[in-house]
Design goal:
The protein is an alpha/beta fold. The protein folds into 4 domains: 4-187, no CATH class; 235-378, no CATH class; 390-428, no CATH class; 449-522, no CATH class. The chain is 19% helix and 22% strand. The protein has 10 helices and 23 strands. A hairpin with a 3-residue loop joins strand 6 and strand 7 (162-165). The longest helix is centred in the last third of the chain and has 17 residues, at 461-477. 41% of the residues are buried. It binds 2-acetamido-2-deoxy-beta-D-glucopyranose (2 copies). Residues 38, 88, 90, 139-140 line the site of one 2-acetamido-2-deoxy-beta-D-glucopyranose. Residues 1-28 form the signal peptide. It comes from Mesorhabditis belari. Keywords: Signal.
Length: 537
């Protein structure tokens, strides 16, 4: 039943792009803030079937304290950064159309008959009609919508009218999966050369440690059907749901051979204090191409994963988009590394015949304290010339050589152009330039604002520095993080993100607002992740 239903989770698709108009931090990449959803329960004229009661849906969607609710799921996996609190559910509404009427309407709608949309036409029309019907009947609705119909077998997300669920697919993994599509994320992959579902691409849906491979991932039973797992580290990084001070960009501090303590991603961040994600670069010309290393334990929404394990993904740019691939081990038999197991990835040979590789070994797993000690060695060296290239010396007084490079890497004995120098310059400063990193890396000259560890808003270096100085001074004065209920005269709430109650002058808040609004344009690669699509903003 699961695999049959899972066939019907198509790739998210575009009808129109909804423009960002709502105030708040949620309409952004990364995703922070409070975003309630509305559930529309919708019956066709020719069927009275109600797969679940309105009360059941209300209980399922809302309530942070209910550990099986959708609200709890998002609150937990985002570590409180994203909340759907206040989501609501309509009564069962009976539209004055049968399934066949809707089908006819969809066939008559030219925009739904375009090649890309055609397979979803019926569902798109059903969503449109149900949502309009709810509006006509005075049900107010939030911008984000989930329509549940009482026939068919599919689960879909589409930009124009959100999520659609059908009777057999009313369970937590599916709904959460479709909701995450609204956050500009497609399906996750493994490196296996297999096709999980007939219409899927190679390796698609084969990341057992990621919700975006539902229903082929490690789900767990819950009150509301199968649930979980959480999201892989690459997705959490993309969404800005990991604290920046606990993500390490390996090699940035000059060390490339040491043991790191990784804490489980499956428990709240405040319960642990190790690293949460290691990013290991492997591409001298693209710092966002990395291996990610994370530790997951059978806790909370990850209960279905069986045993603690260290999980490696490769993040790789293909075309204009980055993808995450779960790396499998031992002839692709295993999805995780356990105690005393290791992984070696050969990268390439250098021009002088040394191999560049990444080597990882799990030295210790502590189940009780939920950490894993992982020894990482990387001989990745971004400025070294590779096999097939040679070192072309350049004179320090060459007028082109403004940065005083000793060499550039060339294929064949060609003249040195400024572009070669620029490229070598970028490679030579590869680590030095990583003031921000991961999928939310800022463009050159910008770095994260970092008002707190989840504040992935790109601002100029100078501004970030000022903020750091201020934060440090406050720490010294021991008044840091002392938010006030009411701001004194001439001060206002800073509101850089939800629940940010710091009191600041009006001018500072105006600047913060502008930074929040403009942040996207200073991200290095604000793109749809794990799929070819545009951002849903
Ligand atoms: C959902 O909440 C919104 C905002 O509070 C409200 O306008 C709307 O009427 C509610 N809808 C339902 C179905 O309760
Ligand atoms: C890594 O460090 C160990 C000792 O801590 C050393 O034996 C080994 O040769 C080093 N490996 C590399 C590639 O530097």
């Amino acid at each position: 039943m699961i695999s049959r239903s899972a066939k019907r989770f198509p790739t998210p698709h575009t009808l129109f792009t909804v423009l960002a108009i709502v105030y708040g931090c949620v309409e952004s990449v990364p995703k922070r803030g409070h975003e309630p959803w509305s559930v529309i329960l919708c019956k066709f004229r020719d069927s009275n079937f109600e797969p679940r009661t309105t009360g059941w849906f209300k209980e399922w969607i809302g309530g942070r304290q209910n550990s099986d609710s959708i609200e709890n799921y998002f609150y937990t996996i985002s570590n409180g950064i994203y909340s759907i609190e206040g989501s609501n559910v309509t009564d069962w509404l009976k539209i004055p159309f049968s399934r066949n009427n809707i089908l006819q309407q969809s066939l008559a709608d030219p925009k739904l008959q375009l090649t890309n949309e055609k397979p979803f036409a019926l569902y798109d029309k059903a969503k449109e009609v149900c949502i309009n019907f709810a509006k006509e009947n005075d049900f107010g609705m939030h911008r984000q919508k989930i329509t549940v119909i009482n026939q068919e077998q599919t689960a879909i997300y589409g930009k124009s009218n959100g999520v659609l669920l059908t009777p057999n697919l009313i369970f937590s993994s599916v709904l959460a999966h479709e909701m995450v599509h609204s956050m500009n994320i497609g399906h996750s992959y493994s490196d296996r050369n297999i096709q999980v579902f007939p219409y899927a691409e190679r390796g698609e849906y084969d990341d057992k440690y990621d919700l975006m491979s539902t229903a082929n991932a490690h789900m767990r039973p819950s009150t509301y059907g199968l649930a979980g797992p959480g999201l892989n580290g690459a997705h959490l990084d993309y969404l800005g749901w990991l604290p920046m001070n606990r993500v390490v960009y390996f090699g940035r501090d000059g060390r490339q051979n040491y043991t790191l303590r990784l804490s489980s991603l499956s428990v709240p961040h405040k319960n642990t204090n190790g690293w949460l994600l290691i990013l290991i670069p492997y591409d001298r010309d693209d710092s966002q191409n990395v291996f990610t290393v994370e530790f997951r334990t059978p806790d909370a929404h990850d209960k279905g994963i069986g045993q603690p394990g260290v999980i490696i993904h490769q993040v790789r740019k293909i075309g204009a988009h980055y993808y995450s691939f779960l790396i499998t081990h031992a002839q692709q038999e295993f999805n995780e590394l356990t105690m005393d197991t290791e992984w070696v990835k050969f990268l390439h040979m250098s021009a002088s015949g040394e191999s560049q590789y990444v080597h990882l070994r799990v030295e210790r797993i502590n189940r009780k304290s939920r950490f894993a000690d992982v020894k990482v060695i990387s001989t990745f060296s971004p400025h070294t010339c590779l096999q097939g290239e040679f070192y072309k010396k350049i004179a320090p007084d060459d007028p082109l050589n403004k940065k005083k490079l000793a060499h550039v890497c060339l294929i064949g004995n060609r003249p040195v152009f400024p572009k070669h120098l620029e490229m070598q310059q970028r490679r030579a400063r590869f680590f030095e330039k990583r003031r921000s990193y991961g999928q939310n890396e800022c463009i050159d000259g910008y770095e994260w604002r970092a008002l707190d560890a989840y504040d992935y808003v790109c601002v100029p270096h100078k501004r970030a520095k000022e903020i750091q100085v201020k934060l440090e001074r406050k720490n010294v004065e021991k008044t840091a993080a002392k938010a006030e209920a009411v701001c004194s005269e001439r001060l206002v709430k800073r509101s850089a993100f939800p629940n940010d109650n710091h009191c600041v002058p009006e001018i500072e808040r105006a600047q913060i607002e502008q930074e929040n609004r403009e942040s996207l344009q200073f991200l290095r690669n604000p793109n749809f992740f794990n799929g070819v699509d545009t951002l849903n903003l």
